[in-house]
């Protein structure tokens, strides 16, 4: 469920360039929504640029979702979606880096050296979660892997942004 919320936020209305990803003959990614992209005001763009710079994220990184349960906010450069890296932020801290390589990419023997490295050199990876999505999920409906390199313990991030208990 959490991944469905994330990918809906990531992909609905966000243009995907497919840079570095397996494209079909038309240059598009099979199964992806090629929307027009989010529209940000100049003020929003400036605020996101300052925030991304403070966290040491690459230039052009923008917020693509609010806080997703057990993960946090998601930030990415739109041209890097859907593969990533996608950066997780909670309480003004970088808490993970994520990649979503397709099953086809793995089958073709593709490699991602340093793809999960931290933007800030002093962050140490606490653990890595790898989840296979055999049917994909909303926003990225092809078989792929969700790979999260977390900088915080499971016990911490599993409590993020949970809905209120009835």
Would you summarize the structure shown here?
Keywords: Signal. The protein has 166 residues and is an alpha+beta fold. Helices cover 20% and strands 24% of the residues.
Describe the structure.
- Residues 1-22 form the signal peptide.
- Keywords: Signal.
- With 166 residues, the protein is an alpha+beta fold.
- It has one domain: Phosphorylase Kinase, domain 1 (2-Layer Sandwich), CATH 3.30.200.
- The chain is 20% helix and 24% strand.
- The chain has helices at residues 2-11, 42-55, 103-107, 154-157, and strands at 61-68, 72-77, 86-90, 93-99, 127-133, 144-150.
- The chain has a 6-stranded antiparallel β-sheet, sandwiched between helices.
Helix coverage percent of residues?
A: 10-25%
Task: Going across the biggest sheet, name each strand in turn.
Answer: 1-2-3-4-6-5
The helix/strand order is: HHEEEEHEEH
Alpha plus pi helix count: 4
| Tally of DSSP β-strands | 6
Q: End-to-end span in angstroms?
A: 18 Å
In round numbers, the mean pLDDT is 77
Give unreliable regions as ranges: 1-37
Keywords: Signal
Signal peptide: 1-22
